Amino acid sequence: MVEAGQLLYVHLPQTGVDLQAFLEAKDVKDTLLIATRNEGKTAEFRKLFGKLGYEVENLNDYPDLPEVAETGMTFEENARLKAETISQLTGKMVLADDSGLQVDVLGGLPGVWSARFAGVGATDAENNIKLLHELAMVFEIKDRSAHFHTTLVVASPDKESLVVEADWPGYIAHEPKGENGFGYDPLFLVGETGKTSAELTIEEKNAQSHRAQAVQKLVEVFPAWQSK
Predict the structure, then answer these.
(1) Could you give the CA distance from residue 228 to residue 221 in angstroms, rounded to a whole number?
(2) Burial class (CB in 10 A: 0-12, 13-18, 19+), 62
(3) What are the binding residues for Mg(2+)?
């Protein structure tokens, strides 16, 4: 980790690196495998972890890996299933997140079913239409409160997994706005800003989103976890 030209923290692969190569290298990076095939989500993580010196891969780089069924009833259960299963299969350090939108008036739905709210294999647009339908009779923005939640799990073979969580509060708009982001971003009004998440730049989103907050928590505890 480098800040203001100062080397603050160096993370090395568990297998180590050649000393001479390390001393001569301008950039020594470890690989972090993100347990997703979603390129939009991967782009966010790549932005967040790139500055920490990580090369970020996703499951599209490993087409032969099996799909891990998200059978958990909580965000943590699903994130653990993905991270720990793929870490054991690949021997790599794997980060999995289970994230979702929780709408208060819907009792926390769509929650862990966010990606398949409109059915298995549903598109983002179909899920957004389903959500708007469910909220059709909720007219006041103040009654459409919601938050994005994320649970991050980092797993490594023969190591207890690291878990962090974060939330991003807001409201559900009456119609989609914005071209950036993915999932429910076009409907999610960020706090009291009046802007949807899809109207933010990726830099603005990465400064405040649920994933950004969770990654910040992860960065704070990661060195101690790695040293165990």
Answers:
(1) 11
(2) middle
(3) 98
Amino acid at 31: T
**Span 153-205, pLDDT tens digits:** 999 998 899 999 999 999 999 999 999 888 999 999 999 889 999 999 988 88
Burial 81-104 (b: 16+ CB within 10 A, else e): bbbbbbbeebebbbbbbbbbbbbe
| Domains of the chain as residue ranges with CATH | 2-227 (3.90.950.10)
Q: What is the 3-state secondary structure (H, E, C) of 71-125?
A: CCCCHHHHHHHHHHHHHHHHCCCEEEEEEEEEEHHHCCCEHHHHHHCCCCCCCHH
Could you confirm whether 104 is annotated as catalytic? no
Name the catalytic one among 30, 98, 104, 124. Answer: 98
* Helix residue ranges, H only, the chain: 19-24, 39-50, 75-90, 124-134, 202-206, 210-227
Taking only the tens place, the pLDDT of each residue in 40-68 is 888 878 887 777 778 899 999 999 998 89
